């Protein structure tokens, strides 16, 4: 995967990345929205320093660490990727409350269509806003969305200093153990 130029990254504002989704998934991982770097290269969680792919591997979801360019292989592991808000932005805090609420409704439709066993939302704040659950915490949620059980994971962005890679992998591992 080639490193995008600063101009390519800047031009990615508002772009979308296709979902990696289909029937028979154990877990559909749901980010907040794509970052500009990810949108520029066309792959989820692609910015160097994002800890999604290492945490996914260290927690046992994949037998080796995948590269963002390998995301199309995730269904082989019964995993998928989507976002609450499709449009790319420089930072997740640029996403509005209204976009998160609308994204939550669109996500419920995806869940009804594809019926993954678990939805793993990567960001507790975004989950709280999108689904009107201000007391939600990281971990399993008491209420499913339709037939899909919900687990909230910490945001794997390198900007989330509250969680080291080891702690992220531990949280991902708790979900893996629940399967």
TrEMBL record:
**Family annotation (CDD domains):** UDG-F2_TDG_MUG
Stretches assigned to the Uracil-DNA glycosylase-like domain: 18-179
Q: For this entry, list what GO says about its biological process.
A: base-excision repair, AP site formation
Enzyme class, first EC level, given as a word: hydrolase
Enzyme Commission designation: 3.2.2.-
A GO MF label: uracil DNA N-glycosylase activity
Q: Which Pfam families match?
A: UDG (PF03167)
Keyword entries, A-Z: DNA damage, DNA repair, Glycosidase, Hydrolase
Which InterPro entries does the entry mention? MUG/TDG (IPR015637), Uracil-DNA_glycosylase-like (IPR005122), Uracil-DNA_glycosylase-like_sf (IPR036895)
Top-level taxonomic group:
Bacteria
Name of the featured protein: TDG/mug DNA glycosylase family protein
Organism field: Longispora fulva
